[in-house]
Structure formats: structure tokens, C-alpha cells
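Usage

Read records sequentially. Each one opens with the input sequence:
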Amino acid sequence: MKKLLILAGPQGSGNHIFSRIFSIHPDVHGWKDLKDKYWLKHHDEPFNESFLYPNLLTEDQFDGFQHICTGISYPSNFDSIKYQPKILEFAAKADSWGIDVTIAIICRDEQIVREQQMRLRKNETIDEFKLYVTSVLLPSKFPVHFLSLETFFCYKQEYLQYLSKVLDFPIDYTNPDILKFITESPNKKYITPITEHWLDKENSVGILLTDLIHTGGKKHNG
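and closes with the structure output:
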């Protein structure tokens, strides 16, 4: 049976990164141009228009492939117009042709997504996406999984190997091209070190008490 993996997330959540990850495998029909380019406008994604107008989707677009990966930001911009992609309608049409459909929700730290959206778009869309997930995608008949950008950058190959098993979908997790354009976490630029926090003092007290317990209540130097 053919398998279709649909990636979805709010703008700035890691859509391009995960599209590259899943499309690199030679047995997957995906957004292959991302293998050699860090970023492309989403209207270059092979199935982009069919998410906006599902009637454009035809069965022969899946011919010759057993594993297909596609994705879309929600909401998305096409020709400078904001759209609410019809992800469920897209999935239902593929399902009607006997294709096994799985939906994967891309997650990134919520505050960072908000900061990123305000920096680039001057407005936030994450709440709109979360409502779509909880009210439309999760109650649907299709299996839904959550992909974590933070977990990927923490465990890299091991996390992708895990995802391949959970999703039952091929991932070329040892391929160095997965991190071809990224040398550090994309969250780093949004993180500013703090010099002091009220919990620091609480933790210090806890460490002092633990130290006293282990030394029988005797203070020591050195």
C-alpha cells in the first residue's frame, strides 16, 4: 500500500527542515529541491496548490511511488494572499484512492515561534494553527503524530531513527545532507542568557542543605 505523510505546522516551526529530512531518502517522493537549497518559497513545493484547491489533486500524481511526503504551513501565503490550507480534504482525497495517510504536526517552542513570526510577518498565527489541530485534525480518522524540532536537534540521528519506526516511513537518518545547511540549533539566536533568576537562590539553598546532610551537619572548607 502506498503511504502518504503530510507535514503541517505554523510558519516558522521547522517545516523546511522536516521536509528536507523526509525527502532525502531515495525511495520517497518529496520536496527534492530542498536537498541543495536551505530555503525555498512554499509555492515551489510539488503539492502546494492542491492543499489550497484539493480538486487539483489527481491520482496519477502518486504513480510510481510507494512513499510520498508533502507539507504545508498553516495558515499559508500564496501570491501574497493568506489561505487556510485544506489539509483534511487533501488527506481524504488520497485516502479515497487507497493510500495510507498519516499526518505529522511539527512542534517548536511556542514562544520562539511567536518571536519568529513577529520578526518576519509582524503577526502571530500559531493560535490559529493550534485551534485547527485540536478541532479538525485530531478528531479526524487519520493517525496524527507530533514531531519535535527541539528533540531532533538534541538527539539528531537517534531521534530520526525513532521517528522512522513510529511513523513506519523511510528516513535516511545517517545521511549528512540532513544537516547540510545547519551547524547549530535554529533556536540559539532567540536565546539570551540570564544573569540571575529567583530560583538560583532556592537551588543554592538546596545544595547547601544537601551538603550539610552528607557531612553530618559539619561545615567544611576546600
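Summary fields computed downstream for this record:
- The longest strand covers residues 100-107.
- The beta strands are 3-9, 28-29, 67-73, 76-78, 81-83, 100-107, 144-148.
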